[in-house]
Amino acid sequence: MPILNSHSLEFISRSPEQTRRVGMRLGGKLQTGDVIGLVGDLGSGKTTLMQGVASGWGSLDPVSSPTFVLVNVYRHPEGGQLFHLDAYRLSGPAEAEDLDVTTMLDAGPLVVEWAERIQKILPPDHLQVVMTYIDENCRDLIISAHGSRYELLLADIRKQIYGR
């Protein structure tokens, strides 16, 4: 278990609904060009968190894991796109570059599942969520900010969750 610093927040989710609510809080703060990297084994709750992110961002589109299509695009009713990339089946950063991540970031926020597989092409400033399976309902989420924009976002999320 990592030792947390002021750039990180740990949250134990006790249900899929609670995981979605954390995602909704994150999604409500996203802007074009933002990047969230999700790290965690199969079954750790990445897609459940993403369902909340898309909902909080404002999309009414159903959310599913983009494992076989690589990128899902969710629409906002007032325009805009939210990109959901699954790097699980990618051979590495070079293959991810072929998907043109830069163009995605110019058009909307980007959430990457299995982000550690393509870390080299992601912007150094981003929010990372490491998710760990505890039991059927519980997940451990460690949210880490990298860069000043994400420090502010994390402080806001911390205040929303813990009231301080």
Keyword list:
164 residues; alpha/beta; 7 strands; 26% strand; Rossmann fold
Rg from Cα? 15 Å
What letter string, H or E per element, gives the SSE order?
Answer: EHEHEEHHEEEH
Work out the helicity level. 25-40%
Low-confidence stretches: none
Shape: globular
CATH class: Alpha Beta
CATH topology: Rossmann fold
How does the helix and strand content classify structurally? alpha/beta
Through-space gap between termini: 24 Å
What's the number of extended β-strand segments? 7
Oligomerization status of the protein chains: single chain
CATH homologous superfamily identity: P-loop containing nucleotide triphosphate hydrolases
The CATH level-2 architecture is identified as 3-Layer(aba) Sandwich
Tally the helices: what do you get?
Answer: 5
Give the rounded overall mean pLDDT: 89
Task: Report on the architecture of this protein.
- The protein is globular and about 40 Å long.
- It has a seven-stranded mixed sheet.
- The chain has helices spanning 16-27, 46-57, 93-97, 101-107, 148-162, and strands at residues 8-13, 35-39, 71-75, 81-86, 110-113, 126-133, 139-146.
- α1 crosses α2 (46-57).
- By secondary structure, the chain is α/β, with parallel strands linked by helices.
- Helices cover 31% and strands 26% of the residues.
- The chain has a single domain (16-162), classed as P-loop containing nucleotide triphosphate hydrolases (Rossmann fold, 3-Layer(aba) Sandwich).
- The model has no long low-confidence stretch (mean pLDDT 89).
- The protein starts with 7 loop residues before the first strand and ends with a helix.
- The protein has five helices and seven strands, in the order βαβαββααβββα.
